[in-house]
């Protein structure tokens, strides 16, 4: 019986009846897979090197976790320790895996939450067990079920409280877990008190190992990370503004920036600022659990760093808009931009200097220089104002009717473009009026109208572009937006300086001394409203 082959589906068959295309595809996939396997060791090594090079502390943290797990495993490996603790040693291993975090503040937060939740849950479970044992078996079961329901409902609802959710959410989860394990198992298991004691001791051992590794072995502080990230954000904004203004007046790389703006150093400078809200709040929360960094202050103002970050984000939005001026469709001609190049670059340089001074003041924990808003910044503003006033024709125009004339010219050009098609389709034989000729005339008019409508749709954006470019001051419009955003950056700089100065006052930064011969520390008790905004410190205090 002959094999039916559809048209267009012919394939060459080998001796085994397998299509050649199928076989070739499998060979190609095997070759690609073997190539990937050969390249995988090099790719893996590059990834390991890149991750460690970005932050060498990651490697230190990995070794700390490995050493902690080795120490806690001795509870199983050493016979005397295993006889004293037994199989409950697994709780110590679980505690190390869950509690040990990258920074000391995160480890303290989790470790103390776990310990506090375990103690409270165990105490409440023993109280309920003491009351339940005084009654009969049926009443005991009902009482335990009711207690589990009430405690579970109340504790879960408390997790929605903003303060509890922010500081003790993990502790409430551990409280629920421990309470249910002890209370429910006590109904069937005897001597549950000893099991709870052993689990509590193993959890304490695990938490102790985690705190030892976090606080004493190459500690990584959340507060230092928050401090350094604030400095980095100020420097990133300064570099973004300087690079943005320089590229705007160079005009050689504008098209390249439009194609790969995500790789632009300008974009990288302000991206870290815009994405920092959740990171700043998390670092500030963990830093509030860490030991105090200064004996001069009542409480280190980590929440003030969050406020500085919020002001920097508002400042960064203006930098984003300034960067957008480099990517607009309509650009001011280079000859027009050259008229204002010196004044704009000077103004951007003064703003960059101010931001770098703020970054250095936070890095060195000192107050800002008194001349951070020097006369040079105001002189640069005046120079830009004078340069704009010296070119009134660019912004106001000299002939009010020129735009209308250009629009009329464009409309006339469009009418001339449409006229031949109208004449071509408008031919009719008026001397003969039969039904067939009337039908043909109606179809012809209908086709002509549709053609005009389609042409009108295509012509609309061309007319709008002619209208925009015909405006006499259209050449200066993009630069006017750029200059106004540059002035807005100067205006928002005052808010940044104010928040940084407030941070230095509350954190008791040393006074500015250009010679750095002596350190003068001014410390005053923070105002009541500022103290209320700080997260309370607990066991870390």
Structure characterization notes:
The protein has 541 residues and is mostly helical. The chain folds into 2 domains: 187 residues, no CATH class; 196 residues, Up-down Bundle (Methane Monooxygenase Hydroxylase, Chain G, domain 1). Helix content is 74%, strand content 0%. It has 22 helices and no strands. Helix 4 packs parallel to helix 9. The radius of gyration is 37 Å and the shape is extended. It starts with 19 loop residues before the first helix and ends in an 8-residue tail after the last helix. The N terminus and C terminus are likely disordered. InterPro entries: ALMT. One of its GO terms (cellular component) is membrane.
Give a short summary of the structure.
The chain has helices at residues 20-54, 57-77, 79-85, 90-99, 104-132, 137-158, 162-167, 169-188, 192-216, 222-250, 254-259, 265-274, 277-289, 302-324, 334-338, 341-363, 375-389, 392-396, 402-425, 435-470, 477-506, 528-533. It is mostly helical and 541 residues long.
């Amino acid at each position: 019986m002959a094999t039916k082959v559809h048209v267009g589906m012919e394939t060459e068959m080998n001796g085994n009846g397998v299509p050649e295309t199928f076989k070739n595809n499998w060979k190609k996939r095997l070759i690609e897979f073997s190539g990937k396997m050969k390249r995988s060791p090099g790719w893996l090594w590059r990834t390991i090197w890149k991750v460690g090079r970005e932050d060498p502390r990651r490697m230190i943290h990995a070794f700390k976790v490995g050493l902690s797990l080795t120490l806690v495993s001795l509870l199983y490996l050493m016979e005397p320790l295993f006889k004293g603790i037994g199989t409950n040693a697994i709780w110590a291993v679980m505690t190390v895996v869950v509690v040990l975090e990258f920074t000391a503040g995160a480890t303290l937060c989790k470790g103390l939450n776990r310990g506090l939740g375990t103690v409270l849950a165990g105490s409440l479970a023993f109280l309920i067990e003491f009351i339940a044992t005084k009654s009969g078996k049926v009443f005991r079961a009902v009482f335990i079920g009711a207690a589990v329901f009430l405690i579970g409902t109340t504790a879960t609802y408390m997790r929605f409280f903003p303060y509890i959710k922010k500081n003790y959410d993990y502790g409430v989860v551990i409280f629920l877990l421990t309470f249910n394990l002890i209370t429910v198992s006590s109904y069937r298991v005897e001597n549950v008190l000893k099991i709870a004691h052993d689990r509590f001791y193993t959890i304490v051992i695990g938490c102790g190992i985690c705190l030892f590794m976090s606080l004493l072995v190459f500690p990584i502080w959340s507060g230092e990370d928050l401090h350094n990230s604030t400095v980095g954000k100020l420097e990133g904004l300064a570099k973004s503004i300087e690079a943005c203004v320089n590229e705007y007046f160079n005009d050689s790389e504008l098209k390249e920036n439009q194609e790969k703006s995500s790789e632009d150093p300008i974009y990288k400078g302000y991206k870290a600022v815009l994405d920092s809200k959740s990171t700043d709040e998390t670092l500030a929360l963990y830093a509030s659990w860490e030991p105090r960094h200064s004996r001069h202050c009542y409480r280190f103002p980590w929440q003030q760093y969050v406020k500085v970050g919020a002001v920097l984000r508002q400042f960064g939005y203006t930098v984003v808009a300034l960067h957008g001026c480099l990517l607009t469709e309509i650009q001011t001609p280079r000859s027009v931009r050259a008229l204002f190049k010196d004044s704009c670059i000077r103004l951007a340089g003064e703003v960059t200097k101010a931001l770098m001074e703020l970054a250095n003041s936070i890095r060195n924990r000192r107050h800002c220089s008194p001349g951070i808003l020097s006369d040079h910044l105001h002189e640069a503003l005046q120079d830009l104002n004078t340069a704009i006033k010296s070119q009134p024709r660019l912004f106001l125009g000299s002939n009010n009717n020129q735009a209308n004339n250009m629009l009329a010219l464009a409309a006339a050009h469009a009418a001339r473009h449409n006229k031949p098609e109208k004449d071509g389709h408008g031919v009719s034989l008026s001397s003969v009026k039969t039904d067939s000729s009337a039908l043909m005339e109606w179809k012809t008019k209908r086709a002509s109208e549709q053609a005009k409508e389609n042409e009108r749709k295509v012509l609309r954006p061309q007319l709008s572009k002619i209208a925009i470019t015909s405006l006499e001051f259209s050449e200066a419009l993009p630069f006017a937006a750029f200059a106004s955003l540059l002035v807005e950056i100067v205006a928002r700089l005052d808010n940044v300086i104010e928040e940084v100065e407030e941070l230095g006052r509350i954190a008791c930064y040393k006074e500015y001394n250009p010679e750095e011969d002596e350190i003068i520390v001014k410390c005053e008790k923070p105002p009541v409203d500022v103290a209320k905004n700080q997260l309370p410190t607990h066991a870390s205090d």
